Amino acid sequence: RITLRRATRVANVDATRRVITLAHNEELKYDTLLVASGGRGYLPEELAEFQPLLDNFNSFEDAMTVRRRLPDGGHVIMIGGDMIGLDLARTLVETGHRVTLVAGPQTFWPHRLDVAERQQFLGVLAQMGMQVVEADARGNIEIIEAGAKGMPARRIVFGDNSDLYGDSIMAFCGLVPSVEFMLGSGVDIERGLLVSRSLRTTNEAIYAAGDVCQIWDQDEKRYRFYYGWKNVRAMGELAARNIVGGDEPWSSSQEEALRVQGDGSLYSPFWEYA
């Protein structure tokens, strides 16, 4: 039987007592715990002060806010441009909007590219209709502010004093695992929850799956994240089997190569959602 608890936030996990404490101080006991809290958009520290001027895209409500704000043919400035952001960017271009990508270290995340590959794929984005601006070539972002009266709603000023105006500014700079509520649990955490190939944490009663966990990679001799819908779904299924008595190891079937399609457009396996 599955019991769903809506509008409920976990504040703490006591692994010794096997108790979850909720934000309203209710305690729930567990025999086995599966942590699948995912991740949230990462915002670099140098952009934190400008967060009130950035449009989010973390929920349906956020998406509707952006839709209402953008006029027909409106201009979106995208900072970073991870693969979630670039998926949105190509859709915006296809629907008649302008997109300027302010490229930086997080562009194409979570793909790992060398310098030549990165330049090649930035060129492909330009051919797909996006304007591409290298942040470091302009002295990086100095200021984000509201546009002056009669001008577009947002303005970015770079270190070389050049600027960009847009109707919306959005940052897509990768994900950070949502692990705050696990900090006092006693399980090992690096950036995410560290798990064995069976998805078990360093506590025998706690498993983790999805963007919140780092899985041991025997070949690379390190814990690593596995992104993409196929991986996340497969982790959930594997965790369920192991929780009820299995001991199967993790094996990823997610393709990770970024490539150019026959029509000249970019394709990422991280854009597959089914």
Explain what this protein looks like in three dimensions.
The protein has 274 residues and is an alpha/beta fold. Among the domains are: 30 residues, no CATH class; 135 residues, FAD/NAD(P)-binding domain (3-Layer(bba) Sandwich), CATH 3.50.50. Helices cover 18% and strands 27% of the residues. It has 4 helices and 19 strands. It has a 4-stranded parallel beta sheet, covered by helices on one side. The longest helix is centred in the C-terminal third of the chain and has 15 residues. The model has no long low-confidence stretch (mean pLDDT 95).
Give the gist of this structure.
The chain has 274 residues and is an alpha/beta fold. It has helices at 60-69, 83-94, 115-127, 229-243; strands spanning 10-14, 19-22, 27-29, 33-35, 39-41, 75-80, 98-103, 131-134, 141-146, 154-158, 163-166, 168-172, 175-177, 193-195, 206-208, 213-217, 222-224, 259-260, 266-267. It has a 4-stranded parallel β-sheet, with helices on one face.
Helix content: 10-25%
> Runs with pLDDT <50, length 5+?
none
Counting helices, strands and paired strands, the structural category is alpha/beta
Strand composition percent:
25-35%
**Tally of extended strands?**
19
Q: Average pLDDT across residues?
A: 95
User: Major sheet: size, sense and barrel closure?
Assistant: 4 strands, parallel
Q: What's the end-to-end separation, in Å?
A: 26 Å
Order of helices and strands: EEEEEHEHEHEEEEEEEEEEHEE
Going by CATH, the homologous superfamily of the domain at 41-175 would be FAD/NAD(P)-binding domain
Number of contiguous helices = 4
Please tell me what the overall shape is.
Answer: globular
CATH class of the domain at 41-175: Alpha Beta
